[in-house]
Design goal:
Blueprint: H1 4-9, H2 13-79, H3 81-89, H4 97-113, E1 117-124, E2 129-130, E3 134-136, H5 146-154, E4 159-162, E5 169-171, E6 180-188, E7 195-204, H6 205-213, E8 222-226, E9 232-234, H7 246-251, E10 254-261, E11 264-272, E12 279-285, H8 286-337, H9 352-412, H10 415-432, E13 438-440, H11 441-459, E14 463-469, E15 477-479, H12 484-495, E16 502-511, E17 514-521, H13 528-540, H14 551-559, H15 565-578, E18 583-589, E19 593-601
Parallel strand pairs: 14-16
Antiparallel strand pairs: 1-2, 1-7, 3-5, 4-6, 6-7, 8-9, 8-12, 10-11, 11-12, 13-15, 16-17, 17-19, 18-19
Helix pairs in contact: 2-8, 9-10, 10-11
């Protein structure tokens, strides 16, 4: 079963381009939208929490300010000399009504100056008290009251005791318990640290409400103020005071958490005042925050939708503009497959498609040139085969005649003539090779050995030679008659032209995966001009226009006939059969000799 990737490879370029453009446009837009949405939600949450915490902090500062004023009032009262004598002597400190009146007038000044004070009561250690606004309900000793005991335990520290609940003290204004908040502070003897009495201040709860109720947390959020016991000092109507996690809030000085109340998520943010010990709690539905986030998400979704719409339109346009010329080129190629070689791409584009179209036109032109060249080569090959067939008739007859002459010479004792005729006979036999073009390398060397033996008979001591072949190369196959033209050139243009005897070395080795045969002579050599011309002729073999003479060859023909037909014939047969890097290479120095190197592929059987 084919995998998805293989199926994807079968998609058209247009579909792939559409998918690619959609991926690089829509996918990043979606990721960006999600990232912005997450970052916005996180930022809004942080901002809401930060702003709420800041508002709560400001509320705590206001409440601490008012509580600090009450503390200062308690200090001023305790430092008054008449109050001090009252703590020590009780009612005996006021021998007359004027002294008592003056003391009460002193206390009344605080309630007049501070409208938030509902009443002040000073109680000594005997249970006797002074107050303008407050009085005891019964004759029960006030030192037994819980608020008095709390003040004693605080050891002179100003303390909030919360709403008065079932206390033996009331006021002439008849405030309800939830309408006031009580503060107490015990007055200690500076030397003995004994409790001399307690200052009780009733603080109006409406001031707390005035500070808190004007603070808005979103559309429907509100604040709640609790004392250190978790009792609500202020809570708006329809608040969820009873459902607050009081223990969790009272444990930490500050924090936030979310809980579901009646199936709706509610956010709580709280801070505790280090001065009063009160905790201000901000309560607001998370829906208020989500609503703002939803508005932002709407803009993000609209942006992503617009980007996606533009991406789809751009992908279809770009894919069409790219795939259309490719499809056109493909149709041209189908027509070429059907044999129409005259068709051409006529586009005026300068991009990669235009470059491909121009290459397509050049390819067709090159194919037509190659077809003409192949046709010409086939024609020449057929002519050569015909000439070879005609030439084989005479060598067969000559070979049989030489065999008869050899038998007659051996009969008459002409042994030197016999060896020459025998060598010539082997020369013709190997040259014919039953019409085969590929022969064993051993036969090729036997052929050149017979040729040199005949030439040795002619030139005597002027010609000397050596033939070396590695044993493992004997059974390899090569194109026949590739050595004789080279050796013939070495004799007639090298050895023959020099003074004294000459030497020809023929050596066959295996190098770099090919058979390398070097024919080296110490003859006359060639000038640089003739060497360059010969190399140019040999390099042109196998090229498109190698059958046409080069300008150098034309000039050489005007001065005289070329004498490299044998080498070119060998080069043509090797290059046309196997191509480069096989063939002939020549190195020569004037008056120093020539080295001809033949490179032939290694062939272990006749092919």
């Amino acid at each position: 079963m084919r995998t998805k990737w293989l199926q994807f490879d079968n998609w058209s370029i247009r579909d792939k381009l559409i998918l690619h453009i959609l991926l690089i446009s829509i996918f990043p837009a979606l990721c960006l939208g999600l990232l912005i949405s997450w970052a916005t939600s996180y930022t809004i949450e942080e901002q809401v929490n930060g702003q709420t915490s800041q508002l709560i902090g400001n509320v705590n500062k206001s409440l601490d300010y008012h509580a600090s004023n009450m503390q200062n009032v308690s200090y001023l009262i305790s430092f008054n000399p008449e109050i001090g004598r009252f703590f020590a002597e009780g009612t005996l400190a006021f021998p007359g009504e004027q002294e008592r009146y003056n003391t009460l007038k002193f206390l009344q000044g605080f309630t007049t100056l501070h409208s938030e004070i509902a009443g002040i009561m000073v109680v000594n250690h005997k249970g006797e008290y002074l107050s303008n606004e407050m009085y005891a309900r019964t004759s029960r000793n006030l030192t037994e009251e819980n608020w008095y005991q709390d003040a004693v335990k605080a050891k002179g520290i100003f303390k909030l005791v919360g709403h008065p609940v079932k206390r033996n003290v009331t006021s002439h204004a008849n405030y309800k318990d939830e309408e006031v908040v009580s503060f107490v502070r015990a007055v200690l003897d500076p030397e003995t640290q004994a409790v001399q009495g307690v200052v009780l201040i009733d603080f109006k709860s409406r001031l707390i409400a005035e500070v808190v109720r004007d603070v808005r947390l979103g559309k429907s959020g509100y604040l709640i103020v609790m004392d250190d016991k978790g009792d609500a000092l202020y809570a708006p109507k329809n608040s969820i005071v009873d459902q607050l996690e009081r223990e969790r809030i009272l444990t930490d000085n500050a924090g936030d958490f979310a809980e579901k109340v009646d199936g709706k998520p509610i956010q709580y943010i709280y801070q505790k005042s280090s001065f009063t010990g009160w905790t201000t709690v901000g309560v607001f539905p998370m829906q208020d925050r989500i609503q703002g986030i939803n508005e932002i998400n709407l803009y993000i979704v609209s942006f992503v939708f617009l980007v996606s719409l533009l991406g789809i339109a751009a992908s279809y346009y770009l894919s069409y503009s790219i795939s259309r010329p490719i499809i056109q080129l493909s149709s041209f190629m189908h027509k070429v497959e059907n044999g129409n070689m005259s068709i051409r791409y006529n586009g005026k584009r300068r991009d990669e498609i235009g470059m491909l179209g121009n290459s397509f036109n050049q390819m067709l032109a090159q194919i037509k040139r190659l077809l003409r060249q192949v046709n010409e080569e086939q024609r020449l090959k057929r002519e050569a085969e015909l000439r070879s067939l005609q030439a084989h008739i005479q060598p067969h007859f000559l070979y049989n005649t030489l065999d008869t002459i050899q038998w007659l010479a051996r009969k008459d004792g002409a042994y030197e003539a016999t060896e020459v005729v025998e060598s010539l006979s082997r020369l013709f036999r190997i040259g014919l090779s039953r019409g085969k073009e590929i022969i064993p390398l051993a036969d090729e060397f036997e052929h050149i050995r017979s040729y040199l033996m005949i030439q040795k008979t002619r030139y005597k001591d002027k010609l000397n030679y050596s033939i070396e072949i590695e044993p493992e190369l004997m059974n390899l196959f090569v194109i026949k008659l590739i050595l004789q033209p080279v050796v013939e050139n070495a004799i007639y243009h090298g050895i023959k032209e020099r003074r004294g005897s000459g030497f020809i070395s023929i050596r066959a080795t295996a190098e770099e995966g090919m058979v390398v045969i070097r024919i080296e002579d110490d003859g006359n050599g060639m000038t640089e001009g003739k060497l360059d011309l010969l190399r140019t002729q040999l390099d042109q073999v196998g090229k498109t226009d190698y059958m046409q003479p080069t300008p150098q060859e034309k000039g050489e023909e005007e001065r005289g006939p070329l004498k490299s037909y044998g080498l070119r014939n060998v080069q043509e047969r090797i290059r046309l059969s196997y191509g480069e890097p096989y063939g002939i290479s020549i190195d020569s120095q004037w008056k120093s000799g020539t080295i001809v190197t033949i490179r032939h592929p290694i062939m272990h059987r006749e092919e």
